[in-house]
Amino acid sequence: MRAKTFLTILMGVIMISNASEAKKTVGPLTLDKMTASADELMRKQSLMSWDNRTKGTPVDYESTYKGYEWLFTPESIKFVGEKIVEPGISADEKRARSFFKDFLVMQHAAREVVSFDDRITNTESKTTVKVPWLKNEVAYREIPIIIAKENDPQKRKELQKLSADVQRDKLNPIVAERDAKVHEIIEGLGYPSYLDFSLSARHVKDFRGIIEDADALNKRTDAIYKELLAEFAKDTLNMKVADMRRSDLQKLFRLDSYVPYFPAEAMTAFLKHFLAGIGLDMTTVDGKKILLDDAERPKKNPRAACYSIKVPSDIRMTIAPQGGIGDYTPLFHETGHAIHFANTTVPEWPFQYLGDYAATESYAGLFEGRFADADFLRHYRDFIAEWNKDRPKDKQVPMLTDRDIAKLVRFALLNDLYFMRRYAGAKLIYESIYHDGNPELWKGIYNGDTKDKREAYRRLFEKAYAFPMEDMDADRYLTDIDEFLYAVDYVRSFVLAAQIDGALSKKFGKEWHKNKDVGKYLKDTLFYAGDKLTADEVAVAIGAKGVDFKTYEQDARSRLAESELLLKN
Questions:
Q1: Dist CA 495 CA 420 (whole Å)
Q2: What is the Cα–Cα distance from 243 to 67, expressed in whole angstroms?
């Protein structure tokens, strides 16, 4: 799965004190004092979250706020709002202050929910389940890993049921109460709704337009998706699509038959080989090393993630490798984030941490997307040939054939279309419904029931996945929500990643992964800006007019045609 940066996780865990506590601050409010304090607090909570994600250490975010109560109050938000319209400031300063105000609002929206978030996180890390055919109980967070390795579809379904039981009985009641309170607080600050504020903070000017563009794309590529889904359901699961369920997805995307071709022990070495090929390495702009935690631990969150503890000096990644291309793609994805943050040079704090996350997600998607490219997979094959020279015969990695490469390109295309359908076809509409959005946003695209949100979730995701959703799968309708509509940043990033790839291919050739000038171009054109650039500004920086869904479709069709040509040879 595509991981969020830590900042979006943080936005759901910051506690705000009562307005009266603002009086505890020493001296008058200043922007410098406020950003310095926000930086200190974010770093403390980032480190706490890192320990929880990598080791399962319990969190207590509430305890981190002592001494910072004054920072997140209506008075502080009003102060920054006044600074945004201060005469004589530059456009950049106005933008930085706007980013900071949105950040403060998001924190204020979490005024009394830190206890809920602590409970959610600690429940996820502490809960264990009894699997009938296993001797010992397993951690809730381990269930996806076990499902991905399970060959029996009935057992996969039973494991999914155990996960759904935890979501329904332990997590959903906490989430429901938390989210209702956050909605009230956002509206109490004077915003029309939670959704309106979220779209403003994500710099989305035409949300209906994005939903329409995504729906049109999904319709035009529907036949391609269904053809590829049927192909890999048969090859990987020995199942018909009609017999598939959500519990089979992790097994499908593990792509068992190709696990030996992508061993965990070669993963980091190949990553460094790739980076060296484009003139980059695992070093920050100020000479520090990017940390990669790839250790296996029972309570470790299996979802890969990147943490920008301190931009650009302290950047960390975590992954739980199991072997297979399903390890390589998330590692490259998180490396895209890490290299971006490690090469951020803008001095303004808001641009280092706040802003439009479609940009950083597109850089992550760019790196991950290399595994969808036939030339890059041949590049990987060449690397493995060299790797094998230093290994005994019985330890050598099998070599990909051209037919294998064609199948992997098709698999990557299935993966990409699946995520586009999941996020653009289901989540944008469902989360609009969940947050009580205007029905005009989805009118004519989704005409089903919206009063029963659980049922709306089931219907939308069943259509997106193109196979039946079990009743238990609908229990995810509260936990499968991206904070402050982060899903719209993912959707735009999918398109932007394809556009950046196309721009690099035009400037440096299709095998741009072998050109050492690429790294400098990315740093000088995009990475330097941190999170300052909006999605459309990223597109303009690489020579496009804006986020263009047709470019994404052209890229998909080109990859499909290339794979079909390889299969014929």
A1: 9
A2: 56
Domains of the chain, by residue range, sit at 6-201
Task: Output the 3-class SS for 182-212.
Answer: HHHHHHHCCCCCHHHHHHHHCCCCCHHHHHH
Residue 357, C-beta contacts closer than 8 angstroms, at least 6 positions apart = 4, 5, 7, 8, 202, 486, 489, 493, 531
Alpha helices in 202-354, H assignment, sequence order: 207-220, 222-232, 249-254, 264-277, 325-342, 349-353
In angstroms, how far apart are the furthest CA atoms of the chain? 74
Residue 466 token pair = 């193109």
**Full DSSP string of 332-349:** HHHHHHHHHHHT-----H
Q: What is the pLDDT of residues 156-178, one digit of tens each?
A: 999 999 999 999 999 999 999 99
- DSSP β-bridge partners for residue 289: 283
Other Cβ atoms less than 10 A from the Cβ of 506: the count is 12
Q: For the CA atoms of 109, 112, 113, 115, what is the dihedral angle to 10 degrees?
A: 160
Is the pLDDT assigned to residue 400 strictly greater than 70?
Answer: yes
Give the end-to-end CA distance of the chain in Å, rounded to a whole number. 33
- b or e along 385-409 (b: 16 or more beta carbons within 10 Å of the residue's beta carbon)? eebbeeeeeeeebeebeeebbbbbb
Tell me which amino acid residue 514 is: K
Mean pLDDT, residues 487-509 taken together: 96
One-letter amino acid identity for 442?
Answer: W
